[in-house]
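Justification of resources, computational component.

The compute hours requested in this renewal are based largely on the per-chain cost of generating structure records like the one below. Each record pairs the submitted sequence with a full structure-token output. That output is archived, and it is also reused by downstream analysis tasks.
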Amino acid sequence: MGKRVFIIHGWEGYPEEGWRPWLKQELEKRGYDVFVPAMPDTVTPLLDKWAPYLAKIVKTPDENTYFVGHSLGCITILRYLEALKEDQKVGGAVLVAGFAHDLEYDGYKGELSSFFRTLVDWERIKKHCHKFVAIHSDDDPWVQVKHNKIFKEKLKAVSKIMHQMKHFSGDDGINELPIALESVLKISR
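The structure output for this chain reads:
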């Protein structure tokens, strides 16, 4: 089996939004098998639906399996990695505008709290994946750049801080994301 990449959208996201179609096409041009699933119940996402759905899509992970997450897709990937069997490993993960604890912005009512009922088990995650890239923007209104530092510290992620990319969504005018492509290519060499 060749190299597989799973691109996981965020809260209220969908496969055709923003930079996901572009990244899928660019990776496929380079011979990757790319999957961009529509995650369930994106308006009211729940961890107990998202993580099992991702596991069902991936089937059997191996070291040629890579992930790219956007926003809520990142914690979904991390929770998926936590749940892998002891002997299962994946090749790497690129985390775009990701966060590892519940959000903290005005007007947020804890809609994503099911993803954070337990603390993230960083050591368990690192047993299953050794390569991480964390990409954040210095002007993201939803996910503060401090989350990049958390991923760098806890996962030894390569840190990428972008300027004026907001939340990296199509609504922000981000329809291509070369840093995500470069990151996948680098971790999958």
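The chain has six helices and six strands. The longest strand covers residues 65-70.
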